[in-house]
């Protein structure tokens, strides 16, 4: 009981921290926080078998995600940890995971039963270790992505970027290229609100409506992903869709920076379910007249279809959208996804 | 020398030269006399020295004359006069040298004479006299020549005096301009006079026309000085000045408003101009021609001599107006004016009121099946259409995309909430989301070109791309006078300030709704032909 309430406390604290922070923390921070939270939960819960672990993780993740709909990272991390656990079990047992193709016609019950009843105590230490590795991987993802900038940005490139002010990854990406001696020009698309904050000094700020006129001059477009899906589509901050469409019209490559923990194992059938809306500002006199009549929309995300993205820049490598499905195998276990 | 430089300025160089030669004549005469006298009395040593002295004295008057001449020339600041004076100096020097030679000759004659004293006394005197007379003859001949030259120069001088006067007055005018600062502000022109512009050829015609300012600006033909002239500004009708001021202050939200205001200003101008014409009892036969000339400086002022071209739609209107003016043929001034006023009224009605009705009728038929409409930025035609449609289709939902937060799209919102309709409002960020949830995108435009390209506000292209992505039709509304043959996009445009225009290619647009009919964008040349809007003489 005690552990339960503790767990509840932890979860509540986590959700509050997510909601309190405005502007939103960077995704890596959230991912780290999630990892730590789940680690503590596992420690307190002490699941006996693999099955228990998996079920408890899934439940917690569902709860957390339901509380904060827009944070898909929570689910991702939960499922990643579950995969790590499975890996450890397999390692201990010896032998490798049966081939997915093989398992289609093989009698699978046995293996799954074995996995389910596997004892957690043995692998606990190893699990903790691999969770720590996960943390380091999350923390190092920014530098890894930034280091790939030298392969993607060249001299005399004109790079159009979006949401530079809010994304540290994007910032690191561009500074790394600049430090490596690349002489490129950066066009930043800034919002009205963001302009008041520190505008990055190496970019020429333009408004979103000017993007179309500046597109013929650009040679590359770099966007940040909020999440990306196995079909190669992704969620980007609002406004990214038009930029990508214009880039496609002018045959300009679009690079999307997407660290691994943003890879969602589920297909997004209803992206609108996820579309959060931000607060909007209307001038006071207008809002007085318009009460009840005007619906102000300020969507947070845009969905980019997979044909609009040239490359996803992940911390391990650059991948084309069609390969994302295969990549998810590295991080998630099919069984977990199926059982979720 | 003792005279004032100002007095001398006004004198012709001809009189100056005449004075110089008078002096020369006198000096040479005295020289001759002195020489003759010294021949009789003093020994040989003296005459040369005397001759030299005489030379010097003859030199010095001429030299001082020359110097004073120079001085006067410099103060007069007149190149031609200077040249004439230089020519005169050369002649004077030539005269001087002749005089010197004469003096030397007479000196030699003296020296010869001194050897044979008395019997040759008369001879040298007669010789010197003869030489002096010879000198005099030479001088008088050369004087005559010089007078001819100076007469010619005097004629040229008169011309230059006028120009000089203008120059001086021009400086005066510019100094007036500097004092009256508010006049300058109305022009909203802060152009440095050192900047050089290349005027297109037809604009040069404007400058050199027989309008009132033609003469004054003949010399300095850059556009800027014409603008800065205070007297030039006085020629601009206050209606147009008011138009400019309004444009500066209120910033017309769209080109239609600018067109309407321009036509109203023109009507006022026409009334006043015809009234003045009646006063002057000018012939009605030249009404059209004169009006055409009179309107040119007004337009030139509006467009700052072509540096800020008129917005596309207004350019068309003005061209058609000029055409109508040229065709005017009526018996009296009053009738001419009536015809024109009627024409202007018609233009206003046809281009704006009726056109809106026609477009909305055509369009509402099409969008009746669509319940959700999305529009981009402000356009009065679109607004009219939307309000009409909303009246007829109560379940219609409208979303407005605004390029800037709280930009011109709020005009749409205002018009809707004034009537109690609900509307959705979003910025550029939400255009993708908006298009996903709407059924048709309706767009206003600034102009439609002959190849079907649509010139619309910046940001329209992004909205159109999103619409195309989600396979919703893009409908552009345009009155017929917005179809233009060709043109180019300038940074600044008269009456509308900075132009934020981008081009949407014809393949992205589904249909263009004009007051004639609904057509595909590539049928733009048909409209141009139908309304005879193609390139005009």
Automatic annotation (TrEMBL), chain A:
Q: Which UniProt keywords apply?
A: Cytoplasm, Initiation factor, Protein biosynthesis
- Its predominant location is cytoplasm
Domain of life (superkingdom) = Eukaryota
Give the matching InterPro entries: eIF2B_beta_subunit, IF-2B-related, IF_2B-like_C, NagB/RpiA_transferase-like
What terms describe the molecular function in GO for this protein?
guanyl-nucleotide exchange factor activity; translation initiation factor activity
Query: Which GO CC annotations does the UniProt entry carry?
Result: cytosol; eukaryotic translation initiation factor 2B complex
Q: Which Pfam families match?
A: IF-2B
Tell me where it resides. Answer: Cytoplasm, Cytosol
On subunit structure and binding partners, the annotation says: Component of the translation initiation factor 2B (eIF2B) complex which is a heterodecamer of two sets of five different subunits: alpha, beta, gamma, delta and epsilon. Subunits alpha, beta and delta comprise a regulatory subcomplex and subunits epsilon and gamma comprise a catalytic subcomplex. Within the complex, the hexameric regulatory complex resides at the center, with the two heterodimeric catalytic subcomplexes bound on opposite sides.
Q: Which family does the similarity line name?
A: Belongs to the eIF-2B alpha/beta/delta subunits family.
Output this protein's name: Translation initiation factor eIF2B subunit beta
Automatic annotation (TrEMBL), chain B:
The UniProt record lists the keyword Cytoplasm: yes
Q: Please state where this protein is localized.
A: Cytoplasm, Cytosol
Q: Quote any Pfam family the record assigns.
A: IF-2B
Write out the GO MF terms. translation initiation factor activity
Where in the sequence does UniProt note compositional bias of the Basic and acidic residues kind?
53-98, 114-126
Annotated Polar residues bias:
127-146
Q: Which domain of life is it from?
A: Eukaryota
InterPro entries (UniProt xref)? IF-2B-related, IF_2B-like_C, NagB/RpiA_transferase-like
- Where is region (Disordered) located? 34-146
Keywords (A to Z) from UniProt: Cytoplasm, Initiation factor, Protein biosynthesis
Regarding protein family, the annotation reads: Belongs to the eIF-2B alpha/beta/delta subunits family.
Tell me, how does this one assemble? Answer: Component of the translation initiation factor 2B (eIF2B) complex which is a heterodecamer of two sets of five different subunits: alpha, beta, gamma, delta and epsilon. Subunits alpha, beta and delta comprise a regulatory subcomplex and subunits epsilon and gamma comprise a catalytic subcomplex. Within the complex, the hexameric regulatory complex resides at the center, with the two heterodimeric catalytic subcomplexes bound on opposite sides.
* Name used for this protein in its record: Translation initiation factor eIF2B subunit delta
Which source organism? Caenorhabditis brenneri (Nematode worm)
């Amino acid at each position: 009981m005690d552990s339960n309430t503790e767990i509840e406390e932890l979860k509540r604290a986590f959700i509050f921290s997510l909601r309190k922070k405005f502007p939103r923390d960077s995704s890596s921070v959230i991912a780290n926080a999630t990892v730590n939270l789940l680690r503590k939960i596992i420690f307190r819960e002490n699941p006996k078998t693999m099955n228990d672990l998996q079920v408890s993780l899934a439940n917690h993740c569902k709860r957390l995600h339901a509380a904060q709909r827009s944070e898909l990272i929570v689910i991702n991390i939960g499922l990643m940890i579950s995969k790590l656990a499975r890996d450890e079990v397999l390692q201990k047992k010896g032998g490798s995971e049966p081939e997915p193709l093989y398992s289609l016609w093989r009698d699978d019950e046995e293996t799954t039963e074995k996995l389910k009843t596997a004892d957690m105590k043995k692998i606990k230490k190893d699990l903790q270790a691999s969770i720590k590795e996960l943390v380091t991987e999350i923390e190092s993802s920014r530098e890894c992505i930034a280091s790939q900038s030298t392969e993607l940005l060249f001299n005399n490139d004109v790079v159009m970027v979006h949401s530079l002010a809010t994304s540290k990854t994007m910032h690191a990406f561009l500074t790394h290229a600049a430090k490596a001696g690349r002489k490129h020009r950066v066009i930043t698309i800034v919002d009205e609100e963001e302009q008041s904050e520190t505008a990055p000094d190496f970019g020429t700020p333009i408004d979103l409506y000017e993007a179309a006129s500046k597109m013929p001059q650009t040679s590359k477009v770099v966007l940040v992903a909020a999440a990306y899906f196995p079909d190669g589509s992704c969620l980007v901050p609002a406004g990214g869709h038009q930029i990508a469409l214009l880039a496609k019209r002018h045959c300009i490559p679009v690079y999307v920076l997407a660290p691994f923990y943003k890879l969602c194992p589920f297909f997004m059938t209803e992206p609108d379910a996820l579309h959060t809306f931000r607060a909007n500002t209307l001038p006071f006199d207008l809002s007085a007249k318009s009460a009840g009549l005007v619906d102000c929309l300020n969507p947070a995300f845009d969905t980019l279809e997979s044909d609009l993205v040239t490359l996803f820049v992940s911390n391990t490598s650059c991948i084309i959208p069609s390969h994302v499905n295969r990549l998810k195998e590295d991080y998630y276990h099919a069984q977990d996804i199926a059982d979720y | 020398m003792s005279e004032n430089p100002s007095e001398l300025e006004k004198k012709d160089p001809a009189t100056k030269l005449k004075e110089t030669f008078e002096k020369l004549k006198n000096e040479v005469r005295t020289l001759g006399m002195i020489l003759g006298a010294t021949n009789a009395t003093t020994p040989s040593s003296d005459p040369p020295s005397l001759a030299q002295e005489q030379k010097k004295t003859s030199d010095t008057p001429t030299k001082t004359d020359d110097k004073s001449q120079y001085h006067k020339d410099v103060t007069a600041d007149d190149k031609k006069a200077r040249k004439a004076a230089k020519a005169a100096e050369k002649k004077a020097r030539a005269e001087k040298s002749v005089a010197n030679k004469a003096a030397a000759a007479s000196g030699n004659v003296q020296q010869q004479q001194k050897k044979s004293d008395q019997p040759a006394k008369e001879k040298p005197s007669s010789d010197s006299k003869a030489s002096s007379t010879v000198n005099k003859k030479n001088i008088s001949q050369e004087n005559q020549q010089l007078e001819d030259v100076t007469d010619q120069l005097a004629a040229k001088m008169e011309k230059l005096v006028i120009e000089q006067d203008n120059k001086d007055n021009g400086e005066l005018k510019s100094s007036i301009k500097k004092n009256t600062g508010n006049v300058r502000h109305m022009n909203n022109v802060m152009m440095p006079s050192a900047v050089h512009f290349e005027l297109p050829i037809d604009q040069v015609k404007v400058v050199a026309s027989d309008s009132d300012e033609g003469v004054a600006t003949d010399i300095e033909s850059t556009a800027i000085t014409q603008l800065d002239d205070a007297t030039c500004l006085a020629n601009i009708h206050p209606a147009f000045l008011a138009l400019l001021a309004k444009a500066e202050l209120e910033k017309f939200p769209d080109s239609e408003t600018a067109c309407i205001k321009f036509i109203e200003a023109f009507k006022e101008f026409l009334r006043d101009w015809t009234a003045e014409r009646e006063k002057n009892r000018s012939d009605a036969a030249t009404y059209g021609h004169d009006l055409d000339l009179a309107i040119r400086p007004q337009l030139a002022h509006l467009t700052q001599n072509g540096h800020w071209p008129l917005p596309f739609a207004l350019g068309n209107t003005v061209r058609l107006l000029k055409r109508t003016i040229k065709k005017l043929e009526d018996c009296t001034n009053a009738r001419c004016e009536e015809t024109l006023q009627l024409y202007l009224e018609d233009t206003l009605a046809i281009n704006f009121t009726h056109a809106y009705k026609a477009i909305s009728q055509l369009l509402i038929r099409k969008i009746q099946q669509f319940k959700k409409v999305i529009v981009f930025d402000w356009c009065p035609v679109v607004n009219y259409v939307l309000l009409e449609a909303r009246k007829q289709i109560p379940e219609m939902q409208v979303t407005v995309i605004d390029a800037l937060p709280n930009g011109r799209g709020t005009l749409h919102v205002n018009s809707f909430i004034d009537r109690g309709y609900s509307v959705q409002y979003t910025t550029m960020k939400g255009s993708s989301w908006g298009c996903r949830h709407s059924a048709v995108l309706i767009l206003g435009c600034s102009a439609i070109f002959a190849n079907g390209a649509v010139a619309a506000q910046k940001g329209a292209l992004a909205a159109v791309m999103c619409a195309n992505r989600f396979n919703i039709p893009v409908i552009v509304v345009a009155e017929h006078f917005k179809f233009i043959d060709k043109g180019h996009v300038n940074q600044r445009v008269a009456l509308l300030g900075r132009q934020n225009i981008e081009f949407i290619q014809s393949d992205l647009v589904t249909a263009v709704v004009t007051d004639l009919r609904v057509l595909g964008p590539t049928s733009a040349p048909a409209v141009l032909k139908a309304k005879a809007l193609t390139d005009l003489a």
